[in-house]
């Protein structure tokens, strides 16, 4: 993507920014920063634009750190869920194999019973 030049008006000063982002995105960021600086300036008439900019930067840095921490927590939770899901899948596969083994064993025992019953019936027929 080509760089574009965007004019932002923040804290009463015009800034020209070269960016790879879209015009809409860059202007929206500039507007958010301007709004925050303006709110700080209105809340305390003794604060300069530079001080308001620093306070805004600190607020945004704090939000970023908290968002990164939350994202890390989500990644950790997702990893734990994936581990649990893998364990559950492995356990399910084990029980499927066990079920098939039992089915085979039952089938074999049924064949033995049928064979034994057939032999017993054959002996009874011969004795009669």
Present the secondary structure layout.
Elements: E1 4-10, E2 13-19, H1 23-43, H2 49-127
Antiparallel strand pairs: 1-2
Helix pairs in contact: 1-2
Beta content comes to: 5-15%
Number of strands: 2
- In terms of quaternary structure, the protein is single chain
Give the N-to-C terminal Cα separation: 97 Å
Average of pLDDT: 92
Give the neighbour order of strands across the main sheet.
1-2
Order of helices and strands: EEHH
Task: Tally the structural domains.
Answer: 1
> In terms of structural class, how would the helical and strand content be classed?
mainly alpha
Helix content: over 70%
Major beta sheet summary: 2 strands, antiparallel
Parts with pLDDT < 50 across at least 5 consecutive residues: none
Q: Whole-number radius of gyration?
A: 37 Å
Spatial shape: rod-shaped
Our count of helices gives: 2
